[in-house]
Structure formats: C-alpha cells, structure tokens
Amino acid sequence: MHYYVYLDVQRQWRWTLYAANNRKIANSGEGYNNKQDCVAAINLVANTGAGNGTPIKYAA
Fold first, then answer.
1. pLDDT confidence of residue 47
2. DSSP letter at 52?
3. How far apart are CA 12 and CA 19, in angstroms?
4. Is the Cα torsion angle 2, 44, 30, 36 positive or negative in sign?
5. Is residue 27 within 8 Å of residue 17, measured between CB atoms?
6. Helix, strand or coil, per DSSP, at residue 28
7. CA-to-CA distance for 33 and 18, rounded, in angstroms?
8. 14, 22, 25, 28: least surrounded by Cβ within 10 Å?
9. Model pTM?
10. What is the DSSP letter of 32?
C-alpha cells in the first residue's frame, strides 16, 4: 500500500491511496495549492488508522 502525490492539470496537489494490488482505494477529493497541505491531509487520514505508516511516493 502507498500514497501517491501528484500535480493535476490545474497545478493543484492531490493524493491517491493505492492498495497492495495497485488498485485505487481512496483519493484526496480536492486539490491543494501547497504540497505541504496535501501531505498534511495524508497525515490526517493516516492518523485515523487508514494507512498509518504507509509510504508516500511523489510524481517525478
């Protein structure tokens, strides 16, 4: 399982959570102007038990 952080076509940061079988199981639902805000949102989700300790991968 991993989070994937990327810039969308509107230049906003988003995240997607992928399961071990590489299927999408969650996403940010909104774009963030700052990368730090996007990562903070991941941490909020992770602290609820959904992916705590799950690595974050970033788009190249």
1. 78
2. T
3. 23
4. negative
5. yes
6. coil
7. 22
8. 22
9. 0.85
10. B
Q: Pairing mode, if any, of strands 13-18 and 24-27?
A: antiparallel
Buried-exposed string 42-53: b where 16+ CB fall within 10 A, e elsewhere: beebbeeeebee
Residue for token digits 């810039």? 7
b/e map 15-39, b = 16+ CB within 10 Å: bebbeeeeeeeeebeeebeeeeebb
Whether 46 contacts 52, CB under 8 Å: yes
The residue to which tokens 């805000």 are assigned: 37
